[in-house]
TrEMBL record:
<dbReference type="GO" id="GO:0008233">
    <property type="term" value="F:peptidase activity"/>
</dbReference>
<dbReference type="GO" id="GO:0016020">
    <property type="term" value="C:membrane"/>
</dbReference>
<dbReference type="InterPro" id="IPR005945">
    <property type="entry name" value="Pro_imino_pep"/>
</dbReference>
<feature type="domain" description="AB hydrolase-1">
    <location>
        <begin position="31"/>
        <end position="145"/>
    </location>
</feature>
<dbReference type="InterPro" id="IPR002410">
    <property type="entry name" value="Peptidase_S33"/>
</dbReference>
<dbReference type="GO" id="GO:0006508">
    <property type="term" value="P:proteolysis"/>
</dbReference>
<dbReference type="InterPro" id="IPR029058">
    <property type="entry name" value="AB_hydrolase_fold"/>
</dbReference>
<comment type="similarity">
    <text>Belongs to the peptidase S33 family.</text>
</comment>
<dbReference type="InterPro" id="IPR050266">
    <property type="entry name" value="AB_hydrolase_sf"/>
</dbReference>
<protein>
    <submittedName>
        <fullName>Proline iminopeptidase-family hydrolase</fullName>
    </submittedName>
</protein>
<keyword id="KW-0378">Hydrolase</keyword>
<dbReference type="InterPro" id="IPR000073">
    <property type="entry name" value="AB_hydrolase_1"/>
</dbReference>
<dbReference type="Pfam" id="PF00561">
    <property type="entry name" value="Abhydrolase_1"/>
</dbReference>
Length: 242
């Protein structure tokens, strides 16, 4: 399933004064444009999981969203908005001359894909949504439901540390690690492209748009404790269980 091969095309695209790195594999007529999750993850894990489509005659295109991978990584928090990422996606599609595309959005990339489809429906051949959500209130309630399965005492402990801004407390991190093991990745060893993306995760966009970790969603704009972006909770926990 996983293939680590050199791209047929590797292009840097200017988007509002920043450099975006795009990758193309295959020369097929049908183009699958991959929008990866995070936000803040390089596109390695998603593009390499779908390179098998090249064997089916498809062209697979992915790009490192602004702030990720080989693209520029500015520190301006005002850049981390879904509207700006929609505009970025359209510039990439247009500059690469992709025409109508089959957009594949995974996780946060699914949110981006939905907004792109609503903004530029004329540019879609199809829309593929993987492991994502279309309703943020529903997402928040389901994440809370999964967390509640840890038990009332553990949830109370987590809420106490959240209120105190102590998200790096060892017992809090242990609960995060357990949640990640149950619901994010259950493999004892994660595939190399996944680990590579996790190791290079830019937590700036992630914290600004999602929150400090997967099960404390701030997408609704609710207040969350201040945390240090240099202490990534999810990648740290992921490394502990990998």
């Amino acid at each position: 399933m996983w293939r680590d091969i050199s791209p047929d095309d590797q292009v840097d695209i200017a988007v509002d004064g920043y450099r975006i790195r795009a990758y193309g594999f295959g020369k097929g007529v049908n183009t699958v444009l991959c929008l990866n999750g995070g936000p803040g993850l390089p596109c390695d894990y998603l593009r390499e999981a779908h390179l098998c489509l090249v064997d089916q005659g498809c062209r697979v295109v992915a790009f490192d969203q602004l702030g990720t991978g080989a693209s520029d990584r500015p520190d301006d928090v005002s850049l981390w908005t879904i509207d700006r990422y929609v505009a970025e996606t359209e510039i990439v599609r247009r500059e690469l001359g992709l025409g109508k595309v089959h957009i594949l959005g995974h996780s946060w990339g699914g949110w981006l894909a939905i907004d792109y489809a609503l903004t530029h429906p004329e540019n879609l051949a199809s829309l593929i949504l993987a492991d994502t959500v279309a309703c943020i209130p529903h997402l928040a309630s389901e994440l809370e439901r999964l967390r509640a399965a840890l038990g009332s005492e553990t949830v109370a402990m987590m809420q106490k540390h959240e209120a105190e801004g102590a998200l790096d407390h060892l017992e809090y991190m242990a609960a995060v690690t357990l949640l990640n093991y149950r619901h994010v990745g259950r493999l004892p060893e994660w595939p190399a492209p996944v680990q590579r993306s996790l190791d290079d995760w830019n937590m700036g966009p992630y914290v600004a748009m999602q929150g400090p970790y997967e099960f404390l969603c701030d997408a609704l704009g609710d207040a969350i404790p201040d945390i240090d972006p240099d202490k990534p909770l999810l990648p740290q926990a992921a490394r502990e269980i990998a």
